[in-house]
């Protein structure tokens, strides 16, 4: 294998850096699935895509599922080129009744979402992102902690002087309890009532509620119809003296969402109809009506069939699906030399060596996995080599060290060929994931070559 930077021309290296700058802005701006959809919609409309249009359109479902398409030279009946990624990420969700006070300190209770290491989330700067929906249907957008003058939030950790029995003698996964992931949000009490009145309780909590009311027009009961997440505060950044890496929250899987979106915009005259999809809920097993397990994808294809004047019968649906080729655009684990004992050096992915074709996922004996057929992997190898895409073919870790899954198995059930493809990351599912700039660029090139072919 060759390093990406041994294969790139000077001009391509400049394009890679420019792509990295744009990607850093995207990561900084889009920290939730709703914010990712908002970002994409803004750029879709600027590129001339029209909601519901038959030639160059998109479908936005509940601001958490977005599909964008462009018709090709060949008719829909001959199949599509699909790239699907997910835009949800591990985080801390506020509970339904989050606000409480203890010893004149106010906190927000959280419930973690997706696979996290709980110790990553203590004693770091956190921001609040999300929406509150009032009883009358009004939506209030919340973003606190990203501007220089904004206050931040944090989850306090126990000092080492008192942590020996409480934390240090426990297993790593048990040292920080989920119920202790409470955000510190306030510590100034509401002014006392006039003399003669009974002493008020929970004055700090009442002060926080007063501030929410004054600044956002929301009441305590409105938290029950809110989606507010605690996410790492601050911007994504270049990492390394040579700017080899990009560090930031949510790169699993927004790095694939970003690169597939860019590939769609640059592929103006594809051979086959292009469909790029951004889905929700992958991190919790693809549950819910905006996920890969929902029927929303089927409904979308039926609508595209109608627009193409094809009778949307099950026969026609499955005929198109069996002629469709797809990529499950998702990241994989890069080899971390500090933890080499969990990796298979011969078969795992290396940072800086290009986009990764992951032929199968799952765990143990390939349980819960989609495995791409050899013919389809060969088909992609041919496309990438014709388009000078630097790529590697890899698995993820030693066989019995763990494993994971993606959305590919749900799409494979329709009869299409599909394989997982994306860049390798370090510190995956942490609050500051790491990607190599060369892998970002080759992922974009791979998606572009696939959509054009």
Residue-averaged pLDDT, rounded? 96
The total of beta strands comes to: 22
Q: Per the principal axes of the C-alpha atoms, what is the gross shape?
A: globular
* Strand order, largest beta sheet: 1-2-3-13-4-14-20-16-18
Q: What would you give as the CATH superfamily of the largest domain?
A: Zn peptidases
Which stretches are low in confidence, meaning pLDDT under 50 for 5 or more residues running? Answer: none
CATH architecture of the largest domain: 3-Layer(aba) Sandwich
Question: Helix tally?
Answer: 12
**How many angstroms separate the termini?**
24 Å
Largest sheet: 9 strands, mixed
Radius of gyration: 24 Å
Helix content: 25-40%
Identify the CATH class of the largest domain.
Alpha Beta
CATH topology of the largest domain: Aminopeptidase
Give an overview in words.
- By secondary structure, the protein is of the alpha/beta class.
- The chain is 29% helix and 24% strand.
- It has 2 domains: 290 residues, Aminopeptidase (3-Layer(aba) Sandwich); 142 residues, Aminopeptidase i, Domain 2, CATH 2.30.250.
- The strands form 4 sheets. Strands 1-2-3-13-4-14-20-16-18 form a 9-stranded mixed sheet.
- Strand 7 and strand 8 form a beta hairpin.
- Helix 2 packs across helix 12.
- The longest helix is centred in the first third of the chain and has 20 residues.
- The two termini are 24 Å apart.
């Amino acid at each position: 294998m060759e390093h990406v930077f041994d294969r790139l021309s000077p001009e391509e290296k400049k394009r890679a850096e420019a792509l990295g700058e744009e990607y850093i802005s995207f990561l900084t701006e889009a920290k939730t699935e709703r914010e990712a959809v908002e970002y994409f919609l803004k750029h879709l409309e600027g590129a001339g895509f029209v909601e519901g249009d038959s030639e160059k359109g998109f479908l936005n479902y509940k601001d958490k599922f977005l599909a964008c398409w462009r018709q090709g030279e060949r008719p829909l009946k001959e199949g599509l080129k699909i790239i699907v990624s997910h835009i949800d990420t591990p985080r801390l969700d506020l509970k339904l009744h989050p606000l409480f006070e203890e010893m004149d300190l106010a906190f927000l209770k959280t419930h973690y979402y997706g696979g996290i290491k709980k110790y990553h989330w203590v004693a770091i700067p956190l921001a609040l992102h999300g929406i509150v929906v009032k009883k009358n249907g009004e939506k209030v957008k919340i973003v606190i902690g990203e501007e220089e003058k904004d206050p931040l939030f944090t989850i306090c950790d126990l000092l080492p002087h008192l942590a020996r029995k409480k934390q240090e003698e426990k297993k790593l996964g048990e040292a920080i309890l989920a119920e202790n992931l409470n955000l510190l949000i306030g510590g100034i009490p509401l002014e006392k009532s006039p003399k003669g009145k009974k002493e008020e309780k929970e004055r700090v909590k009442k002060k926080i509620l007063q501030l929410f009311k004054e600044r956002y027009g929301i009441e305590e009961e409105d938290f029950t119809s809110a989606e507010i997440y605690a996410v790492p505060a601050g911007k994504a950044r270049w990492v390394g003296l040579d700017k080899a890496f990009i560090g930031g929250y949510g790169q699993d899987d927004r790095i694939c969402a970003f690169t597939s979106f860019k590939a769609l915009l640059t592929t103006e005259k594809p051979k086959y109809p292009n469909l790029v999809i951004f889905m929700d809920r992958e991190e919790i097993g693809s549950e819910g009506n905006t996920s890969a397990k929902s029927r929303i994808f089927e409904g979308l294809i039926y609508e595209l069939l109608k627009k193409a004047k094809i009778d949307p019968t099950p026969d026609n649906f499955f005929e198109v699906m069996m002629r469709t080729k797809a990529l499950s655009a998702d990241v994989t684990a890069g080899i971390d030399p500090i933890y080499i004992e969990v990796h298979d050096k011969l078969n795992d992915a290396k940072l800086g060596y290009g986009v990764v074709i992951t032929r199968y996922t799952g765990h143990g004996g390939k349980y819960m996995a989609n495995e791409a057929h050899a013919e389809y992997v060969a088909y992609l190898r041919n496309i990438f080599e014709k388009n000078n895409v630097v790529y590697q073919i890899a698995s993820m870790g030693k066989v019995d060290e763990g494993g994971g899954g993606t959305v590919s198995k749900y799409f494979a059930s329709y009869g299409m060929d599909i394989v997982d493809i994306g860049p390798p990351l370090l510190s995956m599912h942490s609050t500051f994931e790491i990607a190599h700039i060369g892998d970002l660029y080759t992922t974009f090139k791979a998606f572009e070559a696939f959509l054009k072919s």
